[in-house]
Design brief:
By secondary structure, this protein is mainly alpha-helical. Helices cover 70% and strands 5% of the residues. The chain has a two-stranded antiparallel ribbon.
Length: 175
């Protein structure tokens, strides 16, 4: 356990050194993981691909473009807006079903409290209860579909080539 802790600490220090060098414009650094195992070989390869993907030549001079930006606040803002829109839609849909159910229940209750009630009043009350049943079933179906929709499938993680992703983005967003 001590060896693993030492190994992870050393790897974290190497990773920090590598990222700090990039932050300060030193793109000659590498992420050494020789003999560290397959997962670290993949990490080293991924960092190498990142560096290669951002190197370009302009007027016979080689440049490396690197930008690290924290987009957490923008993502939170977008998520909040999405939740607000979803809540508005859900509220609208639920109210469209609940309002007639409440009204019909009150009507049926009033008809059934009158004694004696006529055949016509009994038929009206039965129709109101039938409509309540159909509206309730529709609302239940809506909620079940929403639950099904919100159950996200498990993510499928995979290693991607940064160069390939950059090429795809370039194809989608030509100058």
């Amino acid at each position: 356990m001590l060896a693993l802790s030492h190994y992870v600490g050393q790897t974290n220090r190497e990773l920090s050194r590598f990222l700090l060098s990039i932050q300060h414009g030193d793109f000659s650094q590498t992420f050494p993981t020789t003999g560290a195992g397959a997962s670290f070989d993949e990490l080293r390869l991924a960092f190498s691909q990142v560096m290669d993907a951002f190197r370009f030549r302009l007027h016979e001079q080689e440049y490396t473009l690197v930008s690290f930006q924290n987009i957490h606040s923008e993502l939170e803002e977008q998520e909040l807006e999405a939740w607000q829109r979803l809540i508005r839609v859900l509220t609208h849909e639920i109210m469209n079903s609940i309002t007639p159910i409440t009204s019909l229940a009150a009507t049926a209750d009033g008809l059934l409290r009158q004694e004696p009630f006529s055949e016509e009043e009994l038929a009206d009350a039965q129709e109101a209860v039938g409509t309540i049943r159909r509206r309730s079933a529709g609302l239940l179906h809506f909620v079940e579909e929403y639950q099904r929709l919100t159950r996200l499938p498990a993510p499928h993680f995979q290693i991607l080539s940064v160069r390939e992703v950059g090429t795809r983005i370039e194809q989608l967003m030509p100058p």
